[in-house]
Amino acid sequence: xxxxxxxxxxxxxxxxxxxxxxxxGLGYALFLRKQVLSQDKGTQGMxxxxxxxxxxADAYLKRQLKSILPLILVLTAVLFFSVYVIPPSDExxxxxxxxxxxxxxxxxxxxxxxxxxxGAFFSLTVGxxxxxxxxxxxxxxxxxSRRSFAEALKIAYRTGTITGMLTDGLGLLGGTAIxxxxxxxxxxxxxxxxFGGTLLALFMRVGGGIYTxxxxxxxxxxxxxxxxxPEDDPRNAAVIADLVGxxxxxxxxxxxxxxxSYEVTIVSGLILGLALVSITGELKWIVFPLLVRGIGxxxxxxxxxxxxxxxxxxxxxxxxxxxxxxxxxxAAISIAAFLILAHYYMHEWRAFFSVAIGIVLAIVIDEVxxxxxxxxxxxxxxxxxxxxxxxxxLILRGLSIGFESSAWQFIxxxxxxxxxxxxxxGQPVVFIxxxxxxxxxxxxxxTGNNVAMDSFxxxxxxANGIGEMAHLEKDARQIMADLDAVGNTTKAITKGVAIGSxxxxxxxxxxxxxxxxxxxxxxxxxxxxxRLLITxxxxxxxxxxxxxxxxxxxxxxxxxLMINSVARxxxxxxxxxxxxxxxPGLMEGKVKPDxxxxxxxxTIAAQKExxxxxxxxxxxxxxxxxxxxxxxLGGFLAGVIVSGQLLAVFMATAGGAWDNAKxxxxxxxxxxxGSDAHKASVVGDTVGDPLKDTSGPALNPMIxxxxxxxxxxxxxxxxxxITNAGVIIxxxxxxxVIFGAxxxxxxxxxxxxxxxxxxx
Amino acid sequence: xxxxxxxxxxxxxxxxxxxxxxxxGLGYALFLRKQVLSQDKGTQGMxxxxxxxxxxADAYLKRQLKSILPLILVLTAVLFFSVYVIPPSDExxxxxxxxxxxxxxxxxxxxxxxxxxxGAFFSLTVGxxxxxxxxxxxxxxxxxSRRSFAEALKIAYRTGTITGMLTDGLGLLGGTAIxxxxxxxxxxxxxxxxFGGTLLALFMRVGGGIYTxxxxxxxxxxxxxxxxxPEDDPRNAAVIADLVGxxxxxxxxxxxxxxxSYEVTIVSGLILGLALVSITGELKWIVFPLLVRGIGxxxxxxxxxxxxxxxxxxxxxxxxxxxxxxxxxxAAISIAAFLILAHYYMHEWRAFFSVAIGIVLAIVIDEVxxxxxxxxxxxxxxxxxxxxxxxxxLILRGLSIGFESSAWQFIxxxxxxxxxxxxxxGQPVVFIxxxxxxxxxxxxxxTGNNVAMDSFxxxxxxANGIGEMAHLEKDARQIMADLDAVGNTTKAITKGVAIGSxxxxxxxxxxxxxxxxxxxxxxxxxxxxxRLLITxxxxxxxxxxxxxxxxxxxxxxxxxLMINSVARxxxxxxxxxxxxxxxPGLMEGKVKPDxxxxxxxxTIAAQKExxxxxxxxxxxxxxxxxxxxxxxLGGFLAGVIVSGQLLAVFMATAGGAWDNAKxxxxxxxxxxxGSDAHKASVVGDTVGDPLKDTSGPALNPMIxxxxxxxxxxxxxxxxxxITNAGVIIxxxxxxxVIFGAxxxxxxxxxxxxxxxxxxx
Lengths: 760, 760
Description:
Two copies of one chain form a homodimer.
Chain A: H1 9-37, H2 44-82, H3 90-95, H4 101-144, H5 149-182, H6 186-227, H7 239-280, H8 284-305, H9 315-346, H10 350-373, H11 378-386, H12 391-423, H13 429-443, H14 447-469, H15 474-523, H16 542-581, H17 595-666, H18 676-719, H19 725-748
Helix pairs in contact in A: 1-5, 1-8, 2-4, 2-6, 2-7, 2-17, 4-5, 4-6, 4-7, 4-14, 5-6, 5-7, 5-8, 5-14, 6-7, 6-16, 6-17, 6-18, 7-8, 7-13, 7-14, 7-15, 7-17, 7-18, 8-9, 8-14, 9-10, 9-15, 10-12, 10-13, 10-15, 11-12, 11-17, 12-13, 12-17, 12-18, 13-15, 14-15, 15-17, 15-18, ...
């Protein structure tokens, strides 16, 4: 069975068992959904606000689907026909040896196209369904907070868990199903699955990031700064867009991002695992990661179900304790099960150590993130203190802390790879790459818990907003404010894990790329054997160094364009909100603003801006591969990873630290709200917001999209000569489209009349 | 002769001729010095101010010498005894074949130590002598501006040219002299020369950068922001420190930086040239770069002498025209001479094209820098426009422009390397690396003109300051203000060239490193031949990737520490200036402030801060080399170059663009001085100043110091095993010292009492 020569009975059962666990995870998500939906939605006033948010969210989701669908269709066709450019691998011919070669080609083509659609659809589902559930949860949490803290906490966390279990379940389902059907031929198809997931995640991250910050910055600039009215004031036309934005960015964007890391680590884990299978003849290398993931889902189900508030006094602390209890229960169950697996199934410890290091890495990155961005530690205190000499010194201090955190994150990732080297000391390079992939698998074991903790943030935030706008009772609003504070912390923690896992996932993909290239070259007789993995990717080769430099340029360009996009979209919101403030009766609260207009502006802006950025990510590796060949493409990927990580960590840390520095000042430090120190800290926060919520996070899926495209394109690039007319035409097309995309993203993405006057 | 088998009569004469040209350049510098010193020093009031600046500058130079000398002595000993760890190369034994091997060892040891001292001393001389001359020039320019614009321009430019010709002359003298004495054994010794120059340049860049910005930010924060008194107001205790700082940073720091690039390109050019000599048996590869440099010096002498103002109306334009005339005359003479050289001596065109591309590269980088930082182009206009919505949007726009410029600079450098690949298509890799080195040689051909243009900036700036403080006539002050504006532009242009040449120089050094490693490995029988240059530096090797990641971390850490150093030193100045403002009678102008105190604070701070940073730069490559071996060290260098370039360009561009955005607003845009837009732009400028004048520029020599240390250490690292007790002890020592240095630079570099309260 499985198209695998020597699967033991246990292994066959185990793999079907993992599939079952995937469905169990999804079933658990549905169960929680029913539980949440059965809660009451509170007063009419609350439901009015909630309806506005829901309508806004729906509009965004529909519009997003509409603009993404054509591209998905085109790419599905491209992936299907790609088998007619590059024939299926030897493994595929072996797997389907009872079919004619032409038929196998068709099977693989269909498989790849279907896997792509599946990956895209799953990523979309996690984002969209998760976000819909978050919106459903908001109002119910607000209503529950009128009864008790414990109940509100439980509903908020369980709503978040729905997204978490969807992420787990769908990621595992896709990978396992492909493996069951295609067996040793899986890599041919898995790439389609991975590409679909990463591409959609890129869309949702970029679109969500632009939406949320355009609404946020736009609302604040006019509301808080110009008109001096509080946040979430119903008279501000952008306030609903702002609330929708929290869901779009933190729920949909983040969930799709983590889903994609989850999926990509399983894709690269399976590809590298299969390489080991072909070297050692042992099937365990590929069954292991699937079992680890299955265990993770089970332990997440148990752990997340344990989270519920107590009716105690110190509510914030209680909530933390409960969420942490859930997390550590899951972790303990997982590790115990991994130990059993290592002893009784693997009969060796190396794979266990790799996975365990993943869990350690998650904790270390968590601590590093906390150190640099939490109010209790030196960096945020220093930033807050520098507010006394004005915003310039505060910005400088934040930049300095951002750069420092980048340095340490590099060291942490380097140590992780070192660990894989030490664990697989003396083995061929493929083993080390497999070790890194297993670290990624381990790091994302508790994705269910992580996503739950992350989604909890915007749900609590929105509930708080509904409470504010519907003028709920003071007690209930205090409960929601407490919940919101807890949510801010859990959200920040998962952000660090998201970046760290993205980098590890990208490195695993890079490993898969190297293996893939060597495999193709071995089949063509260019290199001797997969065992040696001697690809020609030497930085000492000038053309590879050229690749590294161009690769390093891409994240810089991307960041720059993203910041501009936010600024541009925000300027449209500023204009709109200003315009609406002139509506007679609005400031007195007699006339309601037109929330929908602001929502529309954000929705359209977010969708328009992402086209150019997506084209750059998809086409640049193709161009480099065709023009400079596959070795330079390897260098390009290394450059993208290095510069991408540098910028992603820098922006996330600096942004988070400025945000929290502002909060400590708002809590009364250096004169508190309204003081000069506070004004300086608001500048820092405004600078940091688009960095930490738009540009920085968008780099995660961008890095992986580029890696996925390279993996897909590598065999074609190796086979074809640069002198081929089709290749030359493609290259010219790529250059034209890339430059068009850059110009589009820089200037033309949005046409607006008063460009020079909006201040952006 | 020359220890070279087959030098033709022309070649022998040519090399001695180059040496003669080097002396000619130095003689020209002395001639200009005499010319400048013969000018009058103006009124007593002017001389009083000038004396204060001179005393401050002298104090800095003396203190610097005192703190650097012990380190130079230690390193001289280390370099001398290094020949007893690694024996001299085969080439050295061949060159001095009439000596016993032990004697040859002694000769090479002495040579290397002497070359190190020479490199250090030359670098120091360029910085210190150039700065002294700038100070001498200041007051004379101020005095001449009371007579005519043309005369003031001529004196200012000629004073700058003194530093320019020193840079040219000393760089050429050192390289040529070593080549004449050591012939084919030059690489053994040249490394000492290069290391001495880069290390001193690092000191002068770091120290100068901290000094100048601490004084500037400190003076502005209290004077302009708190007390609302104009810049260069004599009541501000930090005003003299600020004027001294301009010299310390822009004269001494910049000149040492460019000198070091000049020197390092000749070092790597000669090393790679010798590799080609050994492959082809033709001496021309090594004679060519020396001749190119010789031609450059001659054409700079002619070109710079042409610069003198006309007695016209439009003074700023006239000045530009005259300076440009000088530059393009030099360029035209050079290119014509290169053509003759290519046709009659080289009998081929490849080397000519490489050098010509260097000149083109200088112009392209110049244009890119101008586009991103000049007031006439979109980026600065956009930043200025975003000032209307406050400092946050202005900062964001600047960050975005900084990132974008990094992206394009990467592409430009990548295209340059691509050009070398195309020019040497089909040749072994060493030829391509040689081509890159020749591009570096070409790019710095007109160093004499470049340094003159750069030094012109602070000279004009200081003259203007003297005019302000000595209350000169209105006409004279207008002339000085015009000169100052011209100086700001020429200064900005050369900054782009400095970064670009630093990257190209670093890539050349990286090439020399690869060649060197292969040579040693070939001698040990690890690889076949230098011709193939197959080093094991594959990014596909996990340990190399670890090296890349750690390498990328270093510039991040460095930037972070530098920003903190400036902030800390500036906070000391703020305290001091505030304290002095309380002196009775000072605000009324009856009592003079104690300028010396502020100068002392800056001097001590600058020297203390650089120790930790220098240790990190010197020890980190040693540690990586010993711990992870030479392949990972190669990856480390690539990581340092990529992340270093990203940050250096980002900081220089963002800083420059903010600065000019402020200037356009001060010229009347969006309400001009005092408007809200202006306040926002001042925040941007204050953030940008330490980035563009301290952290960014310091990365140039840092990248090269790390490359030089790696080159020096490579043979030792290849020979020794990691299990050697001495190596283990060294590694532990390195770790301890590096972490000590980080902690020292982060916290302890300066002890000050009210740490928590100074706002930094």
